[in-house]
Amino acid sequence: MIGDFLKRLTQPDPAPMADLDSQLALAALLVRIARSDDDYAQIEMERIDRILATRYRLNPAEARSLRSEAEALEAEAPDTVRFTRAIKDSVPYAQRIGVVEALWEVVLADGSRDQQEDALLRLVASLLGVEDVDSNTARMKIEKRRKR
Question: Where is the Co-chaperone DjlA N-terminal domain (predicted)?
Fold first, then answer.
């Protein structure tokens, strides 16, 4: 399955993704951002599971399974440019802001902002076509939610 997904993802002009493919792509992107600082912490894994469960109405076991599959995909996935392009091409702008919010949730899960995570998130937001102001608003929203 991962091989087929990667093959579709790396086509010069990939077709719009099916729902399951877009779920896997988002999950892999969340894993990629969590791994970007070389410290893939348990709290980040738990946050990814919670995001996936909430976003896709999955039970905890289904969310963990999707994350596990995404971990394997992320490890084999091509560069972030093609990866995000597949999401950008299949997800409306308002939902891409939601993707950026989810990414900020993972970045901030361990209570600190790492430079590598910040840099990758800025790149990903740009590649997703999300304006800086919207990404910043998403970050502030997540920070505010975390302070409650």
Answer: 23-139
